[in-house]
Amino acid sequence: MKIKTVDNTRQLKCYIKAEPTLLGSRIPSQYSTYQQQHNTKKKRRRETSEMAASCVITSPEEEHTPKLDLVTPLVFNPSMLNLQATIPNQFIWPDDEKPCLEAPELDVPLIDLQNFLAHSHSTLDASRLISEACYKHGFFLVVNHGISEQLISDAHEYMSRFFDMPLSEKQRIQRKAGESCGYASSFTGRFSTKLPWKETLSFQFCDDKSRPKNVQDYFCDALGHEFEPFGKVYQEYCEAMSSLSLKIMELLGINLGVSGDYFKSFFEENDSIMRLNYYPPCQKPDLTFGTGPHCDPTSLTILHQDHVHGLQVFVDNQWRSISPNPKAFVVNIGDTFMALSNNRYKSCLHRAVVNSKSERKSLAFFLCPKKDRVVKPPRELLDGNTPRRYPDFTWSMLLEFTQKHYRADMNTLQAFTDWLSNKPIQ
């Protein structure tokens, strides 16, 4: 396999031998303006992106792939970095990509799940609102979701406890190169430019009856039995998120005109990812991001924010914010479901900004199908006027692509399609 990588703004060039498959076509139209803004400033961005860490031997061409030639990796330690007047160059984004901290509010539909499937009228109303959002930008809120407030509170509390631990303790479960689980202090071990101002802890959840306590076992095995209470809380939280995801999948099936059980069955025995996000205060929030612009490569994201603003979505050629609502979960469509819906529902570009005064935390559950399950749209979504947009693939293939070969952005699914088809990515 020969892989050639270039800067994120010029897109990854990948070559790999693969069987010919039915190709996708164009980049989703809602991102075209955003992409054009970058293409008109290539030279300027190229010069800016040449900033590299003094402690890392790298180049702009290594934007997408893990660094293999580290000397002394940068350590993201907010308590130390915040003592400096400014932030390291590795966290500073190009001028034409820097954040707008004050974005107008996005009008996101609020879906009441209390009477879901109990009354057909309520179900149809919820289905219609979700459908409108998913065709436009893929974001909506759900309330009366049946998740215990105490469970949500406990999940936030244990998240605070984990990120309050000394760095050396958190590094006991350091995320390894090419893997999706573990602790990550920014992405300093993988990238050297446009780093996010955040810490994360990610772990796998398997809806597998043969491994009923896989999250709890992860905490005990990785950190010791004193972390069993952590494991119990996040085991219960992930189970609740998985159940909520399947309910939402029923609504999405109704919206798309397929059996309500089709997507629910597809995601049973899911191999999902749970992530705890911690965004420390930043003395220069106008220079960096907590999370850079990207589309989620997964199927469905269920996010619970704390009380601090930070989430922004790119809609109608501008960035809009989604305010925290402690009673609601933010739900958005990911790339895998966009492929599963044959491009009818949109995986929307979004990002997280930081601020100089308050830390921000969020809980993100990423629903993913079983790793060996083939992702392809149901027959109801295919006809003579609607050909296949993406090739067959498995979640494990897309996960490998994003962890080893490509930094998730607005074009991940199209880049992955071209990678599978042995076609150079333009």
Automatic annotation (TrEMBL):
Residues 269-369 form the Fe2OG dioxygenase domain. GO terms for molecular function: gibberellin 20-oxidase activity; metal ion binding. Pathway: Plant hormone biosynthesis; gibberellin biosynthesis; Hormone biosynthesis. Its cofactor is L-ascorbate. It catalyses: gibberellin A12 + 2 2-oxoglutarate + 3 O2 + H(+) = gibberellin A9 + 2 succinate + 3 CO2 + 2 H2O. The keyword Hydrolase does not apply. Pfam families: 2OG-FeII_Oxy (PF03171), DIOX_N (PF14226). InterPro entries: DIOX_N, IPNS-like_FE2OG_OXY, IPNS-like_sf, Iron_ascorbate_oxido_reductase, Oxoglu/Fe-dep_dioxygenase_dom. Keywords: Iron, Metal-binding, Oxidoreductase. GO terms for biological process: gibberellin biosynthetic process. It comes from the Eukaryota. Belongs to the iron/ascorbate-dependent oxidoreductase family. GA20OX subfamily. PANTHER family: 2-OXOGLUTARATE (2OG) AND FE(II)-DEPENDENT OXYGENASE SUPERFAMILY PROTEIN-RELATED. This is (rape) hypothetical protein. The lineage of its organism: Eukaryota, Viridiplantae, Streptophyta, Embryophyta, Tracheophyta.
